[in-house]
Amino acid sequence: MKYVVYLAGEIHSDWRNELKAAVTKSGTDKFITFTTPVTNHDASDNCGVHILGPESDSFWKDHKGAGVNSLRTKTLIKQADIVVVRFGEKYRQWNAAFDAGFASALGKQIIIIHPHEFDHALKEVDEAASVVARTNEQAAEVLSYIVRGELN
Predict the structure, then answer these.
(1) Does residue 74 sit within a domain?
(2) Pairing between β-strand 3-9 and β-strand 32-35 as defined by DSSP bridges
(3) What is the DSSP letter of 16?
(4) What is the side-by-side strand order in the sheet with 109-113?
(5) Is 45 within the bounds of a domain?
(6) How far is it, in rounded angstroms, from Cα 65 to Cα 43?
(7) What pLDDT shows up at residue 103?
(8) Contact 36, 7 (CB under 8 A)
(9) How many distinct structural domains can be found in the chain?
């Protein structure tokens, strides 16, 4: 079986490549197809006005971009078998919380990644997840275990 895993969450670090590298190291990468949001921050912020035309008000600029990005995000989450959502330490990721909630509403299996200090703030998000990992490596080990049915 090949799993489709959507990597949701913050786009300000290299966590996706770190997780993918850990999955590759375990040898289970041939059983997983990863999908992601647009991780180029400028492209993500400006796609709406680039495609649909300029806006003088930042609210409408953001609204256009969010609409375009949401087409991609919702489609890829619907197609995923598993959704991994990482909450980074630098910014509040409302989009990550939304992605987790959307995935939960669709009945998707969810792996959440965040540090201990976010436990209280994310308790409802964590409750919707099958797994709460603290590191990318733990999430990669969970994916490897799911694919192989064996511990590394």
Answers:
(1) no
(2) parallel
(3) H
(4) 32-35, 3-9, 82-86, 109-113, 131-133
(5) no
(6) 9
(7) 98
(8) yes
(9) 1
Give the residue among 123, 143, 138 at the shortest CA–CA distance from 80.
143
First-to-last C-alpha distance (Å) of the chain: 19
Q: What's the pLDDT tens digit per position in 94-121? A: 889 999 999 999 999 999 999 999 999 9
Q: Is residue 118 part of a domain?
A: yes
pLDDT at 11 over 90: no
User: What confidence category does residue 88 fall into, taking pLDDT thresholds of 50, 70 and 90?
Assistant: confident
Compute the residue count for the chain: 152
CB count within 10 Å of CB 68 equals 18
In a domain, 129, yes or no: yes
Look at residue 140 in the predicted model and tell me its pLDDT: 97
pLDDT tens for 29-81 read: 999 999 999 999 899 999 999 999 999 999 999 999 999 999 999 999 999 99
Q: Residue 101 sits in which domain range?
A: 3-37+82-148
- CATH code (residue 9): 3.40.50.450
- Give how far Cα 26 sits from Cα of 12, 32, 83, 97, 124, Å: 25, 12, 19, 29, 31
